[in-house]
Design goal:
single chain; alpha/beta; Rossmann fold; globular; 5-stranded parallel β-sheet; 5 strands
Length: 242
């Protein structure tokens, strides 16, 4: 038993010889190599991404910050609407379709408070406060549309139960005299945003309107039949809705 113990001790000591070598003998160690990064290592750290989102939204330069990007898109929308209104046919009814969240009203205050996580109860409580600020470019666009005689339709994924607070929030932020505010009915609760909004646009067209311009922050606000003649997508790096 003693012999076996000595033999095992010797093996154990040999196994750890490299760890006991002095630092001045690096030649005795094999060259260290770093393997290829695992796929997950190529994804930016979540904390880094959140810091980038805050920097993008909160910066005040004109070099590509969130507010600047929104204004550029709103200006494109206004330029198109002016051109299209100048070429309207006699008796033609023109419609501008606007999403609400991150298109007409900003929920950034709620998003940062929630650390960019989504909880429906917390978000709905925020909506119920009716305190979301207007996105300035969209307010300019809306007023220009009305000056040009273009009817404004708000088309949102919010449920019908939030109609009163949504109307109150819009009016408090300067949006007035829209043609219609369309919200999800309970029967549409399980539909994707793309499917629900496509059906809603078809309903606007059925009222005799030409869908000339659609503005939203999600591709699901803009895609699907029927599409508007021209669509503008606002930047939204904060969340994605299919």
């Amino acid at each position: 038993m003693k012999k076996n113990s000595v033999f095992l001790a010797a093996i154990f000591a040999l196994a750890f010889v490299p760890a006991l070598l002095p630092a001045q003998q690096p030649s005795a160690l094999p060259a260290a190599k770093v393997g290829a990064l695992a796929p997950g290592e190529r994804i930016a750290n979540l904390g880094t991404l959140k810091a980038q989102l805050r920097k993008y939204h909160e910066c005040t330069c004109t070099c590509g910050c969130y507010t600047r990007d929104l204004d550029l898109q709103a200006d494109r929308a206004i330029a198109f609407l002016r051109q299209r209104a100048a070429h309207r046919r006699p008796q033609e009814k023109l419609a501008l379709i606007l999403d609400i969240d991150e298109t007409s009203l900003s929920n950034y205050q709620e998003m940062t408070k929630a650390d960019f996580t989504y909880d429906s109860k917390t978000f709905n409580a925020w909506v119920d406060t009716a305190q979301a600020p207007a996105i300035a470019g969209t307010l300019r666009l809306t007023r220009e549309a009305q000056r040009l005689g273009v009817s404004v339709f708000f088309l949102t994924g919010r449920p019908k139960a939030q109609r009163d607070v949504t109307e109150r929030n819009l009016r408090a932020q300067g949006f007035q005299n829209w043609q219609q505010l369309i919200l999800r009915s309970p029967a549409q609760a399980s539909a994707t945003a793309l499917a629900y909004k496509s059906v809603a646009r078809a309903g606007i067209a059925a009222q005799g309107y030409s869908l000339v311009l659609n503005v939203g922050d999600q591709w699901s606000d803009l895609k699907g039949n029927p599409e508007a003649e021209f669509s503008i997508k606002y930047p939204d790096p904060y969340y994605f809705i299919p």
